[in-house]
Amino acid sequence: VRNTETLFSLYILKESLTQYSSFNRIYHIEKGIRCLNWSSFLRHPQMKYQRMLERLEKENKDLRKVVLQKDEKGIHQRKVKKSLIDMYSEVLDILSDFDSNYNTQDHLPRVVVVGDQSAGKTSVLEMIAQARIFPRGSGEMMTRSPVKVTLSEGPHHVAMFKDSSREFDLGKEEDLAALRHEIELRMRKSVKEGQTVSPETISLNVKGPGIQRMVLVDLPGVISTVTAGMASDTKETIFSISKNYMQNPNAIILCIQDGSVDAERSIVTDLVSQMDPQGKRTIFVLTKVDLAEKNLASPNRIQQIVEGKLFPMKALGYFAVVTGKGSAGESIDSIKDYEEDFFQNSRLLRDGMLKAHQVTTKNLSLAVSDCFWKMVRESVEQQADAFKASRFNLETEWKNNYPRLRELDRNELFEKAKNEILDEVISLSQVTPKHWEAILLKKLWERVSTHVIENIYLPAAQTMNSGTFNTTVDIKLKQWTDKQLPHKALEVAWETLQEEFARFMAEYKGKDQDDIFDKLKEAVKDESIKRHKWNERSMDSLRVIQHNALEDRSITDKPQWDAAIEFMEETLHARLKDTDCVINDMVGPDWKQRWLSWKNRSPEQHIRNETKNELERLLKLHEDHTAYLANDEVTTVRKNLEGRGVEVDPVLIKDTWHQLYRRHFLQKALQHCNLCRRGFYYYQRHFVDSELECNDVVLFWRIQRMLLITANTLRQQLTNTEVRRLEKNVKEVLEDFGEDTEKKAHLITGRRVQLAEDLSESHTLCLLSG
Q1: H-helix or E-strand containing 744?
Q2: What letter would DSSP give residue 301?
Q3: pLDDT, tens digit, for every residue of 380-401?
Q4: Rounded Cα distance, 756 and 97, in Å
Q5: Lowest CB count within 10 Å: 138, 221, 495, 569, which one?
Q6: Roughly what angle, to the nearest 10 degrees, separates helices 723-739 and 410-428?
Q7: Where, if anywhere, are coiled coils annotated (predicted)?
Q8: SS3 label, residue 639
Q9: Residue 454 DSSP one-character state
């Protein structure tokens, strides 16, 4: 009877070769191959049947490759309705890109490969993937993080990382070596300092002819003892990672047990029993059966293991495999040949201790694939219902909270914000030259006015004659131009550009402005400004321009003279006002403020006031007094105050004198400025035969002209160069932020954003799973 069944199966294969197209031939060949009873060949080794079977399998594989190549080139145009399995496969691919917070991916089927360290997990996975793709080591831990391998059929045997476009040709040894090296680098990179393993998943896609479609996750091997060089929590971390994957109710657990060691030493079987006590989603694999048969005195133990009688762990199926002789240089084909030769000659099969469907990695791969897709079929409808219910809840929440807003996810919101920011940057180029120069002129004078008055004008004005005044001014202006002025000017220009940029971004907020972009815009502004650096070459040219402007003393007409006097008066009035405020704070409220506001002077203010009165009498007697108070004058003032019962420190006297003399000098300078209004005629004659000297007016004209020329130069640099460079920086920052998922998630936040993200994912999932 057994021979009759075999011949009938071969007859089906023969008919398929002559009657059907390439697709039908593949289907019937596979059907015939699965109908063959391997035990009949093993018990009745008829070589002609075996050769015929091998020939048909090879032809089946070649036909599949040809068809896949035609599909890839677009030659084959059959319209085939997508099956539930194909659609669910798309869902798996899309979900891998979604936010893990959505909590959907954790309940989708995965084949989780677990086992003790060096039990052969990786080797089994490589046999299923038909390529030696993982790094290898002698007893040391090589799998340091989970590796998710998505297997699918394709015309070429290639591998590719999810986040990379490079394809590794698995038929070339140099590409295989590069792939193993890249996996090892990614594993080590994912492990944090001070740790041995990492929970971060490395995603890899493998395609090739005849590969069974499924998704497997290779986990770090379970260890019983932490050895030297490992982190102290390595054992617990591996247990935690393994449990996290196995607790998924739809995960298929591929439990790998080393057959060459005592079964009692296994740790992983107890762990799997805890996670799947009924064994409804566990497949047990015994590796290194060749060594087990050779070393065991009683082969019956192998039979007990694969029948599920030695372990308390339960499983859907039990398999025995051989994954090579232990050499790292073995090819997949040589391992397959060795495995088939071993089982054909093994007494484990000859004596009936193992069944034919329980051996070889090929049968294991078919069984795992069938189990995986069965789990997918069973779970897809439940997942689809869950997606629809979730979508309804999310849509209801959106309608109630954001009835007038579109459902824009984070990427769509980023694009909208990007366009707004670019519009705001473009607005900078529309600022008028007059506006730029007015702002620059004002800010530049605010920045340098203190230095001009305190370090240039006042020291020069206190000299005895005009020659000394002009000499002092020229020396100090030259030093200022060489060392400080260009730097200050560029600082002002850069600050002005930043403030205008910020102003445009703030003013853009109108009725339709979405405040959800505020954090992103602020980050873009800060990062763009941080990256922007002013052209350093402009400083040298600016220094020359400023130096030439200050060298010029030729006031050509009366309006320029009047403008200089007005500029000088405004400056002196502002300084006088500041000085009066300082003196008032020193001496406290006067009698009017004390009576009307009920304010009193402090003891120190009282001493200051008495000192001020005494020093004012001294100034009245000597209106042309120098800026410094002599020591004998300090002593005289102190004794006069002591005579009135006021104890005063000499330092306080000098400090008070400084402010009083400053006010006295500014008042005299303003009077002199008023006299110089009619001095343009004398200026043209170089003040010959005139007691009036207006060198201070000329100084302020030089300063004013330098400010105007500097503001004009900076405005040209802004409009011609720096605004465009800032715009370029903003675009680069936006591009960088757009590629950084974590950055976008940090900058565009809130319940509205998360709700839109969930809605977008929900719509996609419902579309694919429906």
Answers
A1: helix 741-747
A2: H
A3: 677 677 777 878 888 888 888 8
A4: 16
A5: 138
A6: 170
A7: 46-73
A8: helix
A9: I
Question: Residue 217 has which token pair?
Answer: 């996750």
Higher pLDDT, 287 or 380: 287
Helix H, strand E, coil C: the string for 91-119 is HHHHHCCCCHHHCCHHHCCCEEEEEECCC
How many Å apart are CA 128 and CA 367, to the nearest integer? 11
Q: What is the DSSP letter of 627?
A: S
Residue type present at position 535: N
Q: How far apart are the C-alpha atoms of 10 and 15, rounded to whole Å?
A: 9
pLDDT digits (tens, 9 = 90+) for 137-169: 655 667 888 998 888 888 889 998 887 888 999
Contact in structure between 147 and 186 (CB atoms under 8 Å): no
User: What confidence tens digit (pLDDT) does each residue in 61-101 have?
Assistant: 666 666 655 555 543 444 434 444 445 555 655 555 554 44
Geometric angle at alpha carbon 342, from 340 and 345, rounded to 5°: 105
119 secondary structure, DSSP code:
S
Name the CA dihedral angle for 605, 607, 608, 610, rounded to a multiple of 10 degrees: 120
Asked if 153 contacts 207 with a C-beta cutoff of 8 angstroms, the reply is yes
**In which region does residue 554 sit, left (phi positive, over 0), alpha (psi from -120 to 50) or beta (all else)?**
beta
- Residue whose C-alpha is closest to residue 254's, from 69, 407, 124: 124
Q: What distances in angstroms separate CA 194 from CA 142, 232, 238, 746, one per listed residue?
A: 17, 9, 15, 27
Annotate 158-180 with DSSP letters as a single string: EEEETT--PPEETTSHHHHHHHH
**b/e map of 519-533 (b: 16 or more CB within 10 Å)?**
ebbeebbebbbeebe
pTM of the complete model: 0.56
How far apart, in whole angstroms, are the C-alpha atoms of residue 596 and residue 599?
Answer: 8
- Give per-residue pLDDT as tens, 6-49: 444 444 444 443 443 343 444 444 444 444 444 444 444 444 55
The amino acid at residue 174 is E
Give Cα separations from 545 to 539, 551, 561, 565, 707 (angstroms).
Answer: 10, 10, 22, 24, 11
Which pair of tokens denotes residue 108? 């989708």
pLDDT, position 689: 64
Q: CA 16, CA 7: separation in Å to the nearest integer?
A: 14
User: What ranges in 588-630 are assigned the alpha helix state H?
Assistant: 591-597, 603-621
- Between strands 252-258 and 214-218, the pairing is unpaired
Quickly list H helices, 465-557.
Answer: 466-483, 485-507, 518-531, 537-551
Residues 136, 142 contacting (CB under 8 angstroms): yes
- Check residue 201 and report its DSSP letter: P
At residue 215, what are phi and psi to the nearest 5 degrees? -120, 120
153: part of which helix (H) or strand (E)?
strand 147-153
Contact 379, 95 (CB under 8 A): no
Q: What SS3 string covers 680-725? A: HHHHHCCCCCCCCCCHHHHHHHHHHHHHHHHHHHHHHHHHHHHHHH
What are the residues whose beta carbons fall under 8 Å from the beta carbon of 419, sequence distance 6 or more? none
∠ CA 77-78-81, rounded to 5°? 130
Closest CA to 107 of 3, 269, 247, 13: 247
Bridge partner list, 255 = 114, 284
Residue type, 668: K
For the chain, the maximum distance between any two Cα atoms, rounded to a whole number of angstroms, is 143
pLDDT at 112: 92
Q: Are 159 and 131 in contact (CB under 8 A)?
A: yes
**What is the C-alpha to C-alpha distance for residues 763 and 384, in angstroms, rounded to an integer?**
11
Lowest-confidence segment of 398-407, 510-519, 721-730 by average pLDDT? 510-519
Query: At a CB cut-off of 8 Å and minimum separation 6, what does 457 contact?
Result: 696, 699
Contact 420, 517 (CB under 8 A): yes
C-alpha to C-alpha distance for 563 and 173, rounded to whole angstroms:
84
